[in-house]
Amino acid sequence: MTTIQIILLLVIAAITGMGSVLDEGQTHRPLVACTLVGWVLGDMTTGIILGGTLEMMALGWMNVGLAMAPDTAIASVISTILVINTNQGIGEGIAIAVALAAAGQALTIFVRTMTVFLIHRADTYAEKGNMRGIEIMHITALGFQALRVMIPTFVVVMMSVDSVQAMLNGIPP
């Protein structure tokens, strides 16, 4: 993988992570995220097929009240990278994505819990009329969401194909 590909994948991961809380551009949806990752890695077809399959699974995943849905952002980005880089099939990609979505769900809860502190700081800034402080707290919270997907993506991208292949072979059929 080239340096340019790594940088583009990290940018996609960041946008996908932020998109999962902004819900405006729907960049966190599997069809969008997998397609973009497939484009960067030179296998857009696999990205579209995996993204479409994951999209059908994720249509019913949504946050309702305090219930946190599985994380489609981290599942889409990382599973597509693993499938394309290790020449795995879509079935393996789905298995990886489901496990990643569950792990990402826990990570999302952790990050959202961390941002509560930032929101309380924003409240303090609001009482003082400090608009810049409020903006900084909101941007920092959004940055945490970007890092939530970027860091695991970076770890996966930096792993050797052999170590990933050994990990995937350890998954029972």
UniProtKB/TrEMBL annotation:
Entry keyword annotation includes Nucleotide-binding: no
Chain segments annotated as transmembrane: 29-52, 64-84, 96-119, 139-161
GO BP terms: phosphoenolpyruvate-dependent sugar phosphotransferase system
Its membrane topology: Multi-pass membrane protein
Places the protein is found: Cell membrane
Keywords: Cell membrane, Membrane, Phosphotransferase system, Sugar transport, Transmembrane, Transmembrane helix, Transport
InterPro entries reported for this sequence: GatZ_KbaZ_carbometab (IPR050303), PTS_IIC_man (IPR004700)
Record protein name field: PTS mannose/fructose/sorbose transporter subunit IIC
Lineage of producing organism: Bacteria, Pseudomonadati, Pseudomonadota, Gammaproteobacteria, Enterobacterales
